[in-house]
Amino acid sequence: LGEESEERDDHLLPM
Amino acid sequence: MAEAEGESLESWLNKATNPCNRQEDWEYIIGFCDQINKELEGPQIAVRLLAHKIQSPQEWEAVQALTVLEACMKNCGRRFHNEVGKFRFLNELIKVVSPKYLGDRVSEKVKTKVIELLYSWTLALPEESKIKDAYHMLKRQGIVHSDPQIPADRTLIPSPPPRPKNP
After folding, report:
1. Which residues make Cβ contacts (< 8 Å) with residue B153, sequence separation at least 6?
2. HSE of B166 in the Cβ direction (CA atoms, 13 Å)?
3. Residues in chain B within 8 Å Cβ distance of A10
4. A12 vs B87: CB contact, 8 Å cut-off?
5. Which of B55, B91, B143 to mutate to test the interface with A (most CBs of A within 10 A)?
6. In this complex, is the C-beta atom of B90 within 8 Å of any C-beta atom belonging to chain A?
7. What is the mean pLDDT of chain B?
8. Alpha-carbon dihedral B138, B141, B145, B148, rounded to 10 degrees
9. Distance between CA atoms of B152 and B13, rounded to whole angstroms?
10. What is the ipTM of this complex?
C-alpha cells in the first residue's frame, strides 16, 4: 500500500 | 586505507565530494557505494544526499557528486537504480539543467554531465521508464537539443564490484 501511494505521489516536475 | 568502521553515508559522501580534493578520490567513492549496499535504506538516503551535492554552487563539488552517482549506478545494483528511476530524484537533476530552476546558475560542465548521465541511463536501463520520460521532457523543452555522444567507457555496463567480498 505504501509503495502504491508513493507511486501516485511521484510526479515529473512542472515545466 | 581508511576503514568503514563508524562511517555513515553522509561522512563518506562529504569526503568523496570535498572541494579540497585535488582529484576524484576513489577510496571514498567506493566506500560510499559499499555503505549503500550495507544499509537497509541505503539507496533512499544516498540519492537524497547526492541530489543536495549535485546542486552545490561549487562546480568541483557537484562534478565529484556526479562521479559518485555514476559509480553508484555501476556498483549498487537494482535497489539503487529504482531510486534513481523515481521522479523524486530525477526532478532534482532536472532542476540543475533547467533555466526555470537552477540552470542559469549552474556551469555548463555540470549540466553536460547531467544530460550525459540521463541519456546513458535511457539506453542502459530501458525498464526505468521515468528516466526516459524525464529525458524526453528535457528534449521537448529544448533543454536537450540532440543526444550526447557517450564515450565508450562512460556507458553504464553492469560490472562486478571492484572489491568483491568473501562472505
Report:
1. none
2. 0
3. 86-88, 130
4. yes
5. B91
6. yes
7. 92
8. 0
9. 26
10. 0.81
- Number of residues in chain A: 15
Give the integer Cα–Cα distance in Å for B83 and B106: 24
**Residue pLDDT, tens place only, B105-160:** 999 999 999 999 999 999 999 999 999 999 999 999 999 999 999 876 666 655 54
Quickly tell me which residue has 564490484 as its cell: B161
CA angle B27, B3, B9 (to 5 degrees): 70
Q: Does B154 touch chain A (CB under 8 A)?
A: no
pLDDT 10s digits, B72-100: 999 999 999 999 999 999 999 999 999 99
Nearest CA in chain B to A15: B100
pLDDT 10s digits, A1-15: 677 787 788 999 988
